[in-house]
Amino acid sequence: MHTIIYKASERGTADYGWLKPNYYFSFSNYHNPSKVHFGALRVLNDDFIMGGGAFPTHPHDNMEIVTIPLTGALQHKDNTGGEGIIKAGDVQIMSAGSGIQHAELNASETEPVTLFQIWLFPKEKNIKPRYDQRNFDFLNRQNKWQFVVSPRKEDDALWINQHARFAMTNLSAGKSIEYNNGFEGNGVFLVVINGSVEIEENVINKRDAIGIKDVNKFIIKASVDSELLAIEVPMII
Predict the structure, then answer these.
(1) Out of 77, 155, 170, 205, which residue is the most buried by the measure of CB atoms under 10 Å away?
(2) What is the distance in angstroms between the CA of the first residue and the CA of the last residue of the chain?
(3) Integer CA distances (angstroms), 228 to 45, 87, 179, 210, in order
(4) Which of 106, 116, 12, 115 is nearest to 50 (CA)?
């Protein structure tokens, strides 16, 4: 097993007034040559959006974009006709493909939104742009993995144009859980949304992350009640 620790305190930051992002990888004005991507995972932003804040209409292409709200509600609209409001428990995916334009805004004028926005390099380029979202019951991730994004039918998740899987769990203090790759040779980028866990001799705390590669399964133990996001991605792109 080869591991890379990404401490929350070492993330890139910015303050745009209405938007306060934290960057796990180089993005916008933050550049760290040692943190450009983890395999096919190119962007992971931990965003805080003030009430009334909005990303105006802007373009994307050839990127798989996943949005996971943690608190509040986010409104989406794009030029393919895709639109909706997502909140905690929902997951949204957009295949930018050959080109898409979209806008995102806080659905509330007063309450903030916190979310993860995640970009992956696609498996196939220039596909027809697409949009999808789904609600996932929190009860179905208690001390077990709930797959929310995956191309595999058996995972019953939102489809993605990549050999990648996103899984979430709420792990009780003292409990252990094993992660098994869905695709041999993939790596896993594990984010502790809340809590603290141990992986071998590594202690990973709130908003810390760990990149794990060169192994197809590993065990996580929760020191306290913890909320986790596992992003499994190809390491060769």
Answers:
(1) 170
(2) 20
(3) 16, 17, 12, 11
(4) 106
- Helix (H) / strand (E) element for 115: namely strand 113-120
Domains plus CATH for the chain?
10-135 (2.60.120.10), 138-233 (2.60.120.10)
What does the block give as tokens for 35?
């943190």
Starting at the edge strand found earlier in the chain, the sheet holding 100-106 runs 54-60, 100-106, 73-78, 83-87
Helix H or strand E encompassing 220: strand 217-222
* Token pair recorded at residue 93: 């995916």
**Could you tell me which of 171, 149, 147 has the C-alpha nearest to residue 161?**
149
Using a 10 angstrom Cβ sphere, with 0-12 exposed, 13-18 middle and 19 or more buried, the burial of residue 172 is middle
